[in-house]
Structure prediction request, 1133 residues.
Amino acid sequence: MAGSLSVDLVGAPARSGARGRLIRWALLRAGGVLFVLWAVATVTFFALQLIPGDPAEAILGGPGSQASAEALAAARAEYGLDAPLPVQYLAYLGRLATGDLGTSYALRDDVASVILDVLGPTLLLAGLSLLVASLIALGLAMWSTRGGRVAAAVGSLLEIVAAAVPHFWLAISLILLFSTTLGWLPPVSVPGGLGLVLPVLTLAIPLAGFLGQVMREALLDALDSPFVLAARARGEGDGGVFWRHALRHAAIPAIGLVGWAFGSLVSGAVVVETIFARQGLGRSLLSAVQGRDVPLVIGIVLVVALAYMLVTTLTDLADRVVDPRLKARS
Amino acid sequence: MNRTLPSILAAASVILLASGCAAPAAENSAPVSGGTLVYASGDAEPTCLDPHVGGNYPQALVSSQYLESLVSKNSDGEIIPWLASEWEEADDGLSWTFTLQDGVTFTDGTPLTSEAVAANIAHLKDPETKSSTGYLALAKVASVEEVDELTARVVLSEPDSALLDSLSQPWLAIESPRALERSEEENCESPVGTGPFVVAAWERQTSITLERNDDYSSPPADAGHEGVAYLDAIEWRFLPDSASRYAALQAGTVDLIDNVQPDTIVAAETADGISEFNAPRPGASNRIELNSSKAPLDDVRVREAFVRSANVDDAVTSLFFGTAPRSYSALSSVEKDVYSDPDLFGYDQDAAADLLDEAGWTEKDSDGYRVKDGVTLELDFPVSTNQSIPAEQSLYEQLQSTAKEAGFKVNLSPLDLTSWYTVLGDNDYDLVSAPYTKAGPDVLRILFHSDGTVPAPSGYFANHSQVKDPELDALLDEAAASSDADERADLYQQAQRIVLDGYFILPLFDQQNHYLRSDDVKGLRALPSVSTPTLYDTWLDR
Amino acid sequence: MEVVSLLVIAFLAVAALAPFLLAPGDPLAIDPLDSFQPPSPAHVFGTDESGRDIFTRIVHGTGASLTIGLAATAIGLGLALVFGLLAGFGPRWLDFGTTRLLEVLFAFPGLLFALLFIVVYGPGVVTSTIAVGLSTAPGYARIIRSRVIQVRTSPFLEASVVLGRSARFRIARHVLPNVAGSLFVLATLGVGQSIVWASSLSYLGLGAVPPAAEWGAMLSAGRTYISSFWWMTFFPGLFIVLSAAATTLLGRAIQQRGRES
Prediction:
């Protein structure tokens, strides 16, 4: 699989020196990131204007707040909401350019510090879930290809079931099993690592189901492919074939999925953070949208976009390492 | 003297005796000091810990631990002394003089004086504070005179019989005037009061930490003991999902939970180590309001037909497992002077059919819905998913089904809170269920006086049935001005009759406010003013 | 395996198109005093909180649930195919532009799309479907694009170019069939995923409108009762899994045939 910039490299005229290419790549990359961030901020800003509800009310504690006309007017003036929309937008962009993400309407706090408080826990949750999901998917894939038809069928079925389970149902079921019935794990977040087990499992299991199915298809493809046949003809054993060739081939689409998985994890985190009462970005995003807290929504979306860009860049680099065709070309 | 503590102790000793000997550790029957209680709330985390700002129930729940009001209420509904030891109404009803307790200090060292009372009332009435509940309650207050250090006179623009009720509520609690001078952000972060606990820390989305106030000296007149609180600290957490909240209680991760679902209440009855605590909220009953300002519900016959077509009894019985008593009145059962009339609300499809025929809705379309002059008999019912529990939402579904039999097409729309308020503000609804908690029968004025149809600048108004009846208005105004308790009682009864007879509401059940506690949590009681639990007398038997 | 999936799909198809054949009762008929009944001869899957027969509701809900699953996947894949082909096969500037666009769309958490869409246009089957479709499209597009590029840089495609075949020919004869493999996997996975997604939206209060019988909504409504009345969530969940499994297996079987031929 090719990352987003590999196309450029494939078609790029031959240049002297890898350094030149690297610099050009880095510049293009940075430009791309800035473009995406700008586009994301713009789309979110205008999309939020579509939602019914007066932002001035959101500032004053919500629509049921029975705020007085003077208070509403004061709020509008303070936040610049009485200016025409294009002016508001430009003012907002201007602040963003200086790194000022604004103040959250509902939380009365700096958007940047609100996000920093909740970013760590979500990243930890997402990262661990991705790791566990990959391990489970890999394990299932290995077991299926080595264990014969029965193992393959069972593994396949497990993956399908896992991918079809909604997060909230899985969360509650896991709590019922491991906390209420068995008493092994805490049902909600507690200080210390144990509180992470159930939330991570809840996110990892459906993801493992999905990853597993994609990897399985690629793995089967790979095991059938010419270069694997060639390897076997050369006398390489099953193990070598698996690790050195098939897995590398199957990893390509899986790595490509990491970016997608990251996005799916952020969405899933909303439900998981709510049920397990964990601090997190997902939960903050949900309440920010429902509370029409425009600065906070944009702030969170920008942070997620930035993180996603980071993940994609890393996977592109990983691709370069794993995919022999790209290596050969560059 | 509060009744709960002795009865809990009695129950505990009975259980001890009945369970035989083999008692492991020493079982205490006298309160012990120490320990941290973990409270898990299912409500949304407040954005500001100062209940002067905004003023909703989640704020009241937590502020009841660190803020106190001028007066309180006992379980008989009588106003009792708290921060104010005496009070007197002037003969013309245009002022009230409050004498404060001597020697009380806020936790920042400021003494409690009449200056504090003046500062707090000013804070509540200031639009910059953005108070809604407190602001409305003090609508008739003109000014506060500091007669002397411990005497404050509240001057009114007109007599207000609901003033004491209002002042007993957590949303009008007295905070330190020095603290109120700080920025709103600071004051929201850690308000300063006279209560048995102090706000020590607040980590958003995680918990609020409250620590014991070791200089505490001002319990309300009906408290269980005097002196400082027993608990060292309280950890106040927010667990929005009801299933994981109950699981946390079972696991011992938390000690006390609120917003308990009906089936959980039933399950907890058979569970070991968990007990239930019920404290119905004052104010209005849980009801459906019928929008009488527009067709088709502007016709009282159609309103009655809808009410008759609704099989509420079966729905409440099946969905609430007997934990919620049916209500036939506009007021919560804990209010005094409740007027109730079950006969008005009997399930009777035949009567509904007759009424609709009478009102001209004689044709039916292919789906069975009634039609008149080409218009279908349609009712829009927006439902706030934040403010109603799943059992309530299922109840509306059942009513939708029985109403269909009579020919009504009820459209249920689940909405988030802001969208719901917007729909209400635009008068885009026919049926709605909006909870309202307030101490005292004055809530009738807020909900049914024609002034309640005038929207605030934000578009919000409280009189969702849009009742505009001059006779009703006169009764409510008179009751609000009267100083005679018996006269008020009579007037409020008449007012309730008008509301019920006009079929402006369909009462469903009493406002539910159930808590589940771990059995080693002793001494729990609710402040009767708005039924928030107070942890002052609470101790942990561990 | 294939026979079983075909049978399941046949059942689902009948349930979607002619539910009264399989469940003659009324899915909306309440019976409050008969609520929360466990599975029994009278009610094969038990009754829900309003006394409605769960089997009848599941059968009648097939149409709505599968619509969400199929339509959302169709929207997602349709958009993805267009973007993916444009990006992978078009001139470099088009690829650059489209990829950037995809990255922008992709950078949004899918939930945000759904939330914004539903908050603006209101809840319901149609908005849920569109919301889910839009939020899954960028992810699928990315996968398709990478597959297209993989195919495009492969030997036989280069041979095709050398042989002077037109772009349309190349797309039709080489690219599409090879991309179809991934498409199938995604489509079949997508059906199950979309239904599950819509169910999560119901949990957040943004899903199907009551009293509609829809598996995801039933699953969400039953979750409060999960420890006391297991059948309220078990059966809708079972059908979600069955649909996802059947479509996946069928897709894979078709793919297998394709590969063999």
Notes: Residues 390-406 of chain B form the longest helix (17 residues).
